């Protein structure tokens, strides 16, 4: 439990009997494919918006600005609110959908939320692939957003509930791994389809989003419910049987009773959205807001959404910009594997802090390199060697994100909430994430035009703030059973002040806690 001045914790909790079974491993792999739809969209958007045939059809003003005026300020070539609306509309839809997904996840179970997300994303992909006008294109993006909202709400919770405590980090990061695979696949597809003549290129890129959608939709049909969800919905015997199966042992009494106690407490909570603002849930509420908020202010989506546009803007040709995006996608993928291997050994805090320092340095270096060549006028060009340095430091930055804020931004919020407010808490996490993804996506091209190379310093400053926040306020959560996480907060130097005496103890002792709203 946390006890040090900066919130260090050894992460020790109850060590329930059981092991990592192949059944759990495969169910978590299937569930994690929900990340493919999110990743594919992040990767595909930037590549498509860099295709001339796409721009000329849907955003002719941007296309003519780029082609007609070769002296245009490099920072402002693609500054179009209509163009950014294409990218960011998905995330606004995901934000709204996450609130509805919370109820579906709690009442029907995690797997049905995944199924709904997959089917909706599939329909959106079809609309985008066959889009005839901008309205049809945006409508498809909104459906894609609803699918992302449902999947992102349910998948991390599902993974955290299915995984044994000692392997929870590794299995949960499978979601982020699938996001990176989706991004890489999209970058490779964009590179291939950019060679196709006419409108077929962008149609194939957008339409192929149906593939990851079909994978999660079909996969979710074969997924079992988590024991936590089964107990929450009153299926105790099914939950007991499932817990034995996923832990690979008959000695599941202690874990079952802890989940059961948490469930009994959750049933006394009629309004989780009202309860989540109570004083004793303040630590989890703060983390569910600030972690996704900070994750987007790392600037990662500047790179991933607009990598081809960004590289094209700073002087790379069409092919070079897409190849550079593929390179960053590969770095993202392999660096996420580093996180999978280390997260349950080193813990969450060490990865957060190391990755933060690495990203700060890279943002400063990239901003300086671009500033030296383009200054504030936006006039200039990059030599091959100089451009390689820019790409190299962007890749080092992406690596730092991929083994820290990328996976941990989803893992930590999904594992810290008690059952009675878990769906509401994850919904807040997803909605805040989508809100600031929307804001950053909508504002990026305008910010690049106005802040110029200073945009990288802007994000670097935020990374400094968030790294300090983690150092001070996030206790270590590795190895702690999900229903015992309250002990971590009670032992923290800062968060312990938000708990009364009756809020303490293990999960079983929490069952009898009075659910009246305490004083704030």
Topology overview:
Elements: H1 22-32, H2 34-48, H3 52-58, H4 60-68, H5 81-107, H6 110-129, H7 134-162, H8 168-193, H9 200-207, H10 210-221, H11 227-232, H12 236-247, H13 253-267, H14 272-275, H15 282-296, H16 300-313, H17 318-346, H18 348-374, H19 384-402, H20 405-415, H21 422-451, H22 454-473, H23 486-490
What CATH calls the topology is Growth Hormone, Chain: A
Shape designation: globular
**CATH superfamily caption:** MFS general substrate transporter like domains
Structural class: mainly alpha
Supply the number of helical segments: 23
CATH C-level name: Mainly Alpha
The tally of strands reads 0
Give the CATH architecture.
Answer: Up-down Bundle
Indicate the low-confidence ranges by residue numbers. Answer: 1-12, 505-520
Order of helices and strands: HHHHHHHHHHHHHHHHHHHHHHH
**Alpha-carbon distance between the termini?**
24 Å
Q: Average the pLDDT over all residues and give the rounded result.
A: 81
Report the β-strand fraction as a percent range: under 5%
Please tell me the total number of domains.
1
Please give the share of residues in helix.
Answer: over 70%
For the biggest sheet, the summary is: none
């Amino acid at each position: 439990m946390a006890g040090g001045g900066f919130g260090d914790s050894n992460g020790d909790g109850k060590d329930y009997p059981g092991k990592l079974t192949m059944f759990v491993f495969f169910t978590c792999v299937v569930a994690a494919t929900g990340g493919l739809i999110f990743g594919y969209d992040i990767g595909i958007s930037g590549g498509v918006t860099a295709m001339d045939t796409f721009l000329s059809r849907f955003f002719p003003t941007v296309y003519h600005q780029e082609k007609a005026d070769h002296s245009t300020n490099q920072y402002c070539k693609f500054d179009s609110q209509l163009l950014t609306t294409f990218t960011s509309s998905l995330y606004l839809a995901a934000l709204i959908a996450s609130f509805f997904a919370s109820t579906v996840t709690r009442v029907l179970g995690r797997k049905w939320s995944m199924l709904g997300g997959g089917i909706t994303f599939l329909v959106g992909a079809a609309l985008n692939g066959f889009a005839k006008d901008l309205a049809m294109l945006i409508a498809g993006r909104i459906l894609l957003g609803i699918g992302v909202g449902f999947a992102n709400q349910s998948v991390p919770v599902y993974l955290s509930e299915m995984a044994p405590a000692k392997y929870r980090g590794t299995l949960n990061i499978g979601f982020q791994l699938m996001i990176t695979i989706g991004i890489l696949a999209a970058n490779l597809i964009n590179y291939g389809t950019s060679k196709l003549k006419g409108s077929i290129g962008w149609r194939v890129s957008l339409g192929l989003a149906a593939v990851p959608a079909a994978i999660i939709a079909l996969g979710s049909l074969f997924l079992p419910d988590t024991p936590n969800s089964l107990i929450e919905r009153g299926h105790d015997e099914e939950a007991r049987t499932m817990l034995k199966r996923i832990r690979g042992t008959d000695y599941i009494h202690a874990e079952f009773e802890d989940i059961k106690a948490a469930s009994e407490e959750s049933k006394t909570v009629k309004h989780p959205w009202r309860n989540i603002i109570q004083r004793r849930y303040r630590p989890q509420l703060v983390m569910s807001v600030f972690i996704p908020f900070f994750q987007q202010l790392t600037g990662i989506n500047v790179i991933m959404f607009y990598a081809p546009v960004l590289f094209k803007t700073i002087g790379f040709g069409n092919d070079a910009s897409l190849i550079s995006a593929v390179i960053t996608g590969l770095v993202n993928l392999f660096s996420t594997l580093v996180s999978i291997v280390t997260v349950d050994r080193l813990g969450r805090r060490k990865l957060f802090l190391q990755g933060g320092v690495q990203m700060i340095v890279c943002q400063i270096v990239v901003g300086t390199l671009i500033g030296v060549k383009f200054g504030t006028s936006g006039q200039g060009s990059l030599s091959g060697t100089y451009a390689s340095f820019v790409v190299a430091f962007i890749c080092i930055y992406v690596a730092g994100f991929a083994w820290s804020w990328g996976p941990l931004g989803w893992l930590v919020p999904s594992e810290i909430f008690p059952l009675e407010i878990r769906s509401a808490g994850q919904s807040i996490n997803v909605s805040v994430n989508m809100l600031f993804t929307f804001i950053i996506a909508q504002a990026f091209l305008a910010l690049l035009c106005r802040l110029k190379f200073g945009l990288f310093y802007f994000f670097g400053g935020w990374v400094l703030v968030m790294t300090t926040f983690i150092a001070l306020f996030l206790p270590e959560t590795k190895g702690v059973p999900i229903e015992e996480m309250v002990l971590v907060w009670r032992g923290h130097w800062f968060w312990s002040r938000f708990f009364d005496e009756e809020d303490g103890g293990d999960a079983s002792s929490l069952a009898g806690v009075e659910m009246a709203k305490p004083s704030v």
